[in-house]
Design a protein that fits this description.
With about 200 residues, the protein is of the alpha+beta class. The chain is built from 6 helices and 9 strands; from the N terminus they run H-H-E-E-E-H-E-H-E-H-E-E-E-E-H. Strand 8 and strand 9 (about 180-185) form a beta hairpin. The relative contact order is 0.21.
């Protein structure tokens, strides 16, 4: 299953899926600043949240204190950039060995209408057993998206309303054990670069 997922990611990127990384031109600089920080020297990213994990358990940001978090927003019906981002996270954590034990990778769905805990449980296990899938009510998802400065919107499908897409910011945030922003990556960051940076920080 995992091998098939990797193949589909590569195919999707080759067919033009990489365009999804720039859903909003300049969004990364507007959110994080050129060096990943706001004008005050501190990134305006992150904050409290209450969501439901893939086991159906209610979790908050406090449940992850003391650990680094790799936070990535997307949805399970995403054709290309979400699988690419999750595969990158998985491969980078595998590459840094025991240091990965300090990190909880988190996939937050921006599609709560379709992404139930059960759906997320099936989806994230295709990538890495470490990944925590989070969903919630539309209001809860909107709240964490606002805290992380993440844009998302539904793109209707007139021919099949149930097969709508979701435009969304595709930044991978590295948050510290205190919940504060540390760094960020994109789904197009190279595996070597991401692993090297994580290894240095951890």
């Amino acid at each position: 299953m995992r091998a098939k997922m990797i193949a589909s990611v590569i195919a999707g990127l080759v067919l033009g899926g990489i365009a999804a990384i720039a859903i909003i031109p300049g969004v990364q600089d507007r959110v994080l600043g050129p060096a990943g920080t706001a004008g005050s020297g501190k990134a305006l990213v992150g904050g409290p949240f209450t969501l439901t994990d893939q086991a159906g358990k209610t979790v908050t940001d406090k449940d992850f204190r003391g650990r680094y978090m790799l936070v990535f927003f997307g949805y399970t019906h995403c054709p290309d950039i979400c699988p690419a981002g999750l595969q990158l996270i998985s491969a980078a954590l595998d590459k840094i060995g025991s240091k990965a034990d300090k990190v909880t990778p988190i996939f937050v769905s921006v599609d709560p209408q379709r992404d139930t805990p059960e759906t997320l449980a099936t989806y994230v296990k295709n990538f890495n057993d470490r990944i925590v899938g989070l969903t919630g009510t539309p209001e809860q998802v909107a709240a964490i998206a606002k805290a992380y400065r993440v844009f998302y919107e539904k793109t209707p499908n007139e021919n099949d309303p149930s097969s709508y897409g979701m435009n969304h910011t595709s930044i991978i945030y590295l948050m510290g054990p205190d919940g504060e922003y540390v760094s960020h990556f994109t789904a197009m960051t190279s595996l070597d670069d991401m692993a090297a940076k994580l290894g240095k920080i951890l």
